[in-house]
Design brief:
Layout lengths: L4 H10 L2 H21 L5 H21 L5 H9 L4 H17 L4 H15 L11 H6 L3 H9 L1 H19 L9 H6 L10 H13 L7 E2 L2 E2 L1 H35 L2 H9 L4 H4 L9 H13 L3 H6 L2 E2 L26 H4 L12 E2 L1 H12 L6 H19 L1 H7 L31 H15 L7 H21 L7 H17 L1 H5 L4 H22 L3 H13 L1 H15 L6 H10 L1 H20 L7 H9 L26 H8 L1 H11 L7 E2 L11 H4 L1 E2 L24 H6 L1
Helix pairs in contact: 1-3, 2-3, 2-4, 2-5, 3-6, 5-8, 6-9, 8-9, 8-12, 9-12, 9-15, 12-15, 12-18, 15-19, 18-21, 19-22, 21-22, 21-23, 22-25, 23-25, 23-26, 23-27, 25-26, 25-28, 26-30, 27-28
Length: about 725
Amino acid sequence: MKVNLEYLESKLESVNGEEVQRIQDNINSLFHHCVQALGEEHQIKVVNALQTLCALFRGVHQKNKSASGFDIINMLMGFDKAERRMKDLMERLDSLLCGDSSESLKSLCLKLLLCLVTVTDNISQNTILEYVMINSIFEAILQILSDPSSRGQHGYDAVVLLALLVNYRKYESVNPYIVKLSIVDDEPTLDVSMLLLAVSSLKNDGEKQATFSSGRLTTERLISCHSQGMGVVLHQALTEYNRQYKDKEEENQGGFFSTLTSMVGSMFIADVDEKLSVQTNEAILLALYEAVHLNRNFITVLAQSHPEIDIPVTPSTPTPTTPTTPLGTTPPSLDVMNNPELPLDPNLQTSNLLITFLKYASIVMQDTKDEHRLNSARLCLIILTCIAEDQYADAFLHDDNINFRVSLHRMPMRHRKKAAGKNIPSRPLVCAVLDLMVEFIVTHMMKDFPMDLYLRCVQIIHKLLCYQKKCRIRLHYTWRELWSALINLLKFLLSNETTLLAKHNIFHLALLVVNLFNMFITYGDTFLPTSNSYDELYYEIVRMHQVFDNLYCMVLRVSTNTGQWKEAASKVTHALVNIRAIINHFNPKIESYAAVNHISQLSEEQVLEVVRSNYDTLTLKLQDGLDQFERYSEQPKEAAFFKELVGDPMRSSLSLLIQPRYPSRFSFPRPSCHSLISPSVFLTIHSSAVPSVHPLSFHHRSIRPQPVSLLFLLRL
């Protein structure tokens, strides 16, 4: 019998304390019968049971938000029987997910699990999840992600579910999902030259070596398949997000405002080129972070190349009159998720998950004024931090034999024209990472200064430089853009000293920036591409000497006075010793050269000539620890951030994605009069009933339910 789910949920929320005690036995009985019904062969019973369980979980939790987890468990299933009831529930859900059930039923199972995981604002306060830890469904999630068909239907739900389960009490106790996700294969470490070959062979032998045990893949093989399956889901979600953002950007540029701007000039650019409203997707970023952070084998998935093609836009079809879905809150359509791999074309640009992520990061990092966007930008930088610390990721990033054209999104600004994407050179991927960092540094010097993001950005650059110094990699990059951005950042800190010091320790950031220059000064001859690049470094320092002079005066003033920032400023004073030595050494030489040659203003080449001819008399101090850095550790520094991310702020953005909508009707195809077929074969759930949580689709197809045959009802 079909249940009125809206009524059941609202009724549970409306009853008072005494009524709850009176009907507790009925709730326990209903929960028990729902769990039993999950083992029925008739799919309508199973569907009704899954939906009723969703209503019970949500209704009881909404009514008893202040109650303890044990009271909620007692109200739902009875505390003395809870262990058995949850064991039966998890086993039956596992059986449905791993068996031959219809895709609609599997989707409802995942919706139920997502509903269970997200009923509380703080996931770690959801005591019922202890039973989900004991009765693991990790292998079921892996099986979904390892099978292309299931991955296309349910991959997004499975990835979000896994990301949330990994964050359950991850700091207080041993989380089995973390342990299993972090399993590393026993294969020997691969060097750079074998990296792509290894990925290719892993992909090719994935199905051949898969073994089945009791109708499912073995855990060991699933771990390998899971990494690729998870990578596919993440890549498709981010790819479609990027495409839709690009479409929206082009649509905005082609309207009346674009024409008006071209007529009246660039003086109104700030008013016309408004930032596009972007609905961030922390769920996908969280899943990507956990994969990169917990399983270093996932680095090979980041590097796996494939053709870069535009995802075909679904033809416009009549859509139901439902509220417009915000950009970034619906996953990629099934035809995209199931799209077979295309053959490589020598003229076709290749891409990978890392490139797609960099493009995504360049979008969400543009505007950090909103809390959700700020969290997304922070999470993007944390992911890049983990990648920059991994030596195998660094080897791939810096491989000069593996080049890509990466078109990053750039924030519209008055003083620069929009870059033409066609002129992007093919370079190692580390150049795109550096471009992203430079872009962020240049575009976020504002009153509401994102200090935390700037610190992470500069630290990522430092870690990449440490790898280049260690491996003596001479990267052909436009280092002048980086130096210019860093000097302008110091200039901004000086200009806004009073305002920023009221909120931030600007001396820590200044120290990191100065030490980047010290890295170039001390070790630049080992990783700068040419001697000319080293000369240009000195030229930029001398040319912008006023900024460094002002910085020295400021930190000297603060360090000689008693105050909160005395020690921090003193560190910057000591760090400036070599930069000041360069300025004090070359400035008199340049002035003397100009006086002797009667030149009022020297050209760049003339200054460089003076620099080259006076290296021998320059004395610098050797500074220790410049190529050392503190490795990323989630606990304890980032624990509060991730608790907040998986808590209330993330809950609001996830609510559109993972809270199930209840099926309102079923469609039954007309049966043939010549054969009697089991009604379960015909059962399909209406599209509005079990929506894919695809965060990036603009188009929702409306499937008209088929009329039910009277003969079919009689057979039922």
